[in-house]
Amino acid sequence: MNDQAKTIGTSKPSGKASAKPDALVLFMPSGRRGRFALGTPVLDAARSLGVYVESVCGGRGLCGRCQIVVAEGQFAKHGITSAAGHLSAWTETETRYTAKRAMEPDRRLSCHARIQGDLVIDVPQDVQINRQVVRKRAEARRIERDPATHLCYVEVELPDMEKPLGDADRLLAALRRDWDFDDLAIDFHLLAQIQPILQAGDYKVTAAIYDDHGSRHVIALWPGLKNAAYGLAVDIGSTTIAAHLSSLLSGRTLASAGAPNPQIRFGEDLMSRVSYVMMNPDGREAMTKAVREAIGVLIGKVAAEAGVPEDEILEAVFVGNPIMHHLFLGIDPTPLGGAPFALAVSAALTFPARDIGLPVNQGARVYILPCIAGHVGADAAGATLSEGPHRGEPVTLLVDVGTNAEIVLGNKHRIVAASSPTGPAFEGAEISGGQRAAPGAIERVRIDAHTLEPRIKVIGADEWSDDPQFDEAAASLGITGICGSGIIEVIGEMFLAGIISADGVVDGTLAARSKRIVKDGRTWSYILAKGDGGGNPEIRILQTDVRAIQLAKAALYAGVRLLMDKLGIDRVDRIRLAGAFGTYIDPKYAMVIGLVPDCPLKAVAGVGNAAGTGARMALLNRGHRREIETLVRQIEKIETALEPRFQEHFVNAMAFPNKVEPFPHLAAAVTLPKADLETVAGESPRRRGGARRNR
Amino acid sequence: MNDQAKTIGTSKPSGKASAKPDALVLFMPSGRRGRFALGTPVLDAARSLGVYVESVCGGRGLCGRCQIVVAEGQFAKHGITSAAGHLSAWTETETRYTAKRAMEPDRRLSCHARIQGDLVIDVPQDVQINRQVVRKRAEARRIERDPATHLCYVEVELPDMEKPLGDADRLLAALRRDWDFDDLAIDFHLLAQIQPILQAGDYKVTAAIYDDHGSRHVIALWPGLKNAAYGLAVDIGSTTIAAHLSSLLSGRTLASAGAPNPQIRFGEDLMSRVSYVMMNPDGREAMTKAVREAIGVLIGKVAAEAGVPEDEILEAVFVGNPIMHHLFLGIDPTPLGGAPFALAVSAALTFPARDIGLPVNQGARVYILPCIAGHVGADAAGATLSEGPHRGEPVTLLVDVGTNAEIVLGNKHRIVAASSPTGPAFEGAEISGGQRAAPGAIERVRIDAHTLEPRIKVIGADEWSDDPQFDEAAASLGITGICGSGIIEVIGEMFLAGIISADGVVDGTLAARSKRIVKDGRTWSYILAKGDGGGNPEIRILQTDVRAIQLAKAALYAGVRLLMDKLGIDRVDRIRLAGAFGTYIDPKYAMVIGLVPDCPLKAVAGVGNAAGTGARMALLNRGHRREIETLVRQIEKIETALEPRFQEHFVNAMAFPNKVEPFPHLAAAVTLPKADLETVAGESPRRRGGARRNR
């Protein structure tokens, strides 16, 4: 690549250079710009500015990866007035390419299109080479690409008795000559294959180079031009493992799939799995084997769905909570089960996929995001990378709710993280009618404050229960229980309707107004669904259910509040709820029950599998790996168990919404019961003093 | 380590520094010197000058590896007049150390002995820690040490909930803090072991760091102070595999052993093994498996002999000819069987020993020396490293004789290399009475020029055949054949006695003088041993045997001459004969039959397993790895088959000694037959012109 860039602001006046005619070129979406001598290939201009444009064939017009678009509409805006004739004419090479492969009509091959005048160039993030059927809609997020693995086509010198360099050595010389790779090592497993592959390709071959973190290796080799390379992003959840298959060349996600984590048979939640390892000498090994096998099956599934041979998968990025992380790596997780919750390894890791027997290319590499702390894992790191609290000024609260809630709070100046022991209530465990989110589970609830009659919505049916068609749908599904988001809503609605007090007591006096309020021993309950006497049970919200939710939400809130104390703040600007639970709960009810602090409702959003999105970002851009590695070292880790104020916050957070803070935004959005507004939403000198103390 | 060195010539005058009292310290044998502030530990002074002094415990006085001697006798010579009080007093730590371990009385621990005045310090290359029985005399050569693998003792911070770095990460932090390792990676197989090892060692552990070629890895870890680390140097010959086990910490060779190469059952010589691969689809795999297994057994043998657990072997360095090299690595060697003799890989290689299943530490690394050309392998590179033609002015000829003779010629200015197809005659094949060197084989021969009666010496008997005790010894051994060195001598003596002419014809007219000259069909033979009619055969040197030796020695000589032509020289200063054959042949007879060019007899020497010595050098000093890697790129490779003059030299070299050059040194040492002196040893205008042409 030549180096004709003179970036604005850094170029120095030079008699020689300024004598040559040049042009201003602006690359979108990066916004990088520079002046280039007329005749410079657009690809070279992009490279010299550090704009990532893929090229497998090294500018030979064979691979079609380096497509660009002249963004005509944006010229005036960027001070460039006309593009007519500013790019060289269509070349024979491009005609030859489009005769074989599809290319959208407004596109050019940047290795052959040359700069003839000022230009705004759009670098598409989605270059289609094969008419591959994409069954899975790529996630909305556009990830700028700079992957660790590159395909590099080279033409290797023939063996020569007078210069008896080995085949491997001539391959490396070609990669140095054409691709500027200076210090490449070759994976041992390739050594015996180099000679036959060179011969099969008539000494024209494509090498896959893994280039990250100072390690540069030839990891795979094919005869001729290889124009396909894929990577996996995998989130190992304790319940579900989710995998996404993306093209490393186009950036697109081609397939996604999920599977239950088979470790569930060793223990439902994290701590029971740790106990299993403690009680069973082979427990760790069995769980490691189980999760790796399940991932192997999942890889086969996404590869088949996308029509991609497993051998073309060259990278796999993993996230998971610390216990999943350790078990996946084959590390004993028991030290994570008690203080000081010592991680065996916290930094990001890279190693060959064959070390753990994944069914991918023999040279493929694994990258695992760093863990933040003993309870705040690589999944939280992935979610942080995805949601980017560190990229802006707004103070962002990122919560991933599971048996432990992982909490990250802060902005570009400072970030703190902790985990809170919420227990499994939010996942439907410990709740009398609770169940996992599945067809038949109640997921939405509204209670009429006057009649105290509920309306419900059930997973699998489109209608609310007051719709005439609901009964039919419910009959076929059955109403089997209530899932996490339903629990949050029913508790929230019971509070808003006055069925439970701010302290969480079910008001027995209401039994006079509604038959749904019934006595259960010494406490009162609310009948949410009456049951049909057959397969569908009565679903009753017990006083103990309310207590379970109070404990869980107070733990989460106390953790959040502790982090706010650390930062010396008493409000957050944005709230991001990650994970399956976070995605399905209605932010309003999260705030009504006081799961999260008060915040404008519009600024609260579920963000789905943010950990998985972070894994995809690390897969497609090694800059994101450095970003999260650096950030994790900077994040301040708070161990809630060591903080005396945690208990205080916890007690005060038992109330609805809580007794810690005012909630002006919530009060503006819903009608809170009067008594509660008076008791807890007024001025509180203690709280204010507390915030001041921590400033 | 502090950095108090001001090396002479580079130190700048500085008011502050020159105000402090300092002293001149000279380290032997390196000769490096510098001025150091009084009170500087000798170890720090050595480190800052780049003088290699081992230390496992990092200056805690525990490992005893950093011993030094004050070289009192050399003071005046180096301009230092007295050492009294120039080193700090004996410390309590040293007393504690010597209470537990042996240390020679004149030694000090350099981590605790501090500079108090001018000193000459001797760094011993052999530091004994355990009273290990050394059964194998270490080879005479003293190899300066700078191994790729270091043991580093560290005290790791305890897990801390407030700073939740993983155990692996705190280990790396300790290695950075105490040993300045900045960018260490940890081998994947260690990950799951770190936590239990740290706990077992109470967070005091010893890490083995492999640090070579920009790759820095933690490859092994032990609880507490580990004070033992070993390495292997292995020469994979086509006939014999030789292994040496050395301590990486003291540099001593503790055990050596050899074993037959089991590939012999697939083919006696190299080309028959290549043919075997061509004919058998699984041939390559079977031979790779066989040689790796044999090496595994050999490792067990040397480890047992030295009393070293295999787990403490952290490195293995290999040399071998190209075909052995490829088969060992699992690479198809068939391209080496024909032009263009393409090596699959020629550069030096490093990879984990577990990739080839060696029974050593799981993290041990393999280093393989580079190959020079398709017929000039890593063994020749090892021999070159050992004999060092590139280190001096004298033009050195290095020859390793096998089925192919590998030839290296040159000096510090320029080196050329080639191989000559000598065939197996020197190894006793194709010779009627030939056999491998083994008890009962004739190895020495003298023929009385008047009586034509021979005296012989047989392997396994100390006496010559004219000694009265010989018959008894011979009777118990039997005289079974003649080995390589015996063949060279009998041909040389036959020539000197006039039994064969300069053209190699057995003179039948001598039958009149001796019954040992007998007719065999149309040619004549010489009866070397009469046989006893029982188990011991008659050993007869046939005309065809003479011809076989003529062909072999002419091929070798022609190769040497071709290289001399390339360098434009007509004499060499030194000749080094490597390998088993080279070690046992008498240089005089090598010159009499014209195996090598004329040279002062004193300058010709057998050097034993030079390839193995080169491997040991690369094992103990990574500087030697860089040295041979650089040199191999600079060596000019000559393919004899492509050189038109090879055939001409070959034909002229068929004569004894040859028809190419004069041999003044040989003529001064032995009485050459008169006729021959007239025919070939006189002035030869053609040859002189030839030499001039190549200048």
Explain this structure:
The structure is a homodimer of 695-residue chains. Residues 1-17, 131-138 and 676-695 of chain A have low confidence and may be disordered. Chain A has 20 helices and 28 strands. Helices cover 30% and strands 21% of the residues of chain A. In chain A, α9 (378-387) crosses α15 and α9 packs across α16. In chain A, the strands form 6 sheets. A 6-stranded mixed β-sheet of chain A has the order 1-3-2-6-4-5, covered by helices on one side. With 695 residues, chain A is of the alpha/beta class. At the A-B interface, α4, β8, α5 and β15 of A face α4, β8, α5 and β15 of B.
Overview features:
homodimer, 695 residues, alpha/beta, 6-stranded mixed β-sheet, 20 helices, elongated, disordered C terminus
Describe the structure concisely for a colleague.
By secondary structure, chain A is α/β, with parallel strands linked by helices. In chain A, strands 1-3-2-6-4-5 form a six-stranded mixed sheet, covered by helices on one side. Chain A has a six-stranded mixed sheet with strand order 13-12-11-14-16-15, with helices on both faces. In chain A, strands 27-26-17-18-19-28 form a six-stranded mixed sheet, with helices on both faces.
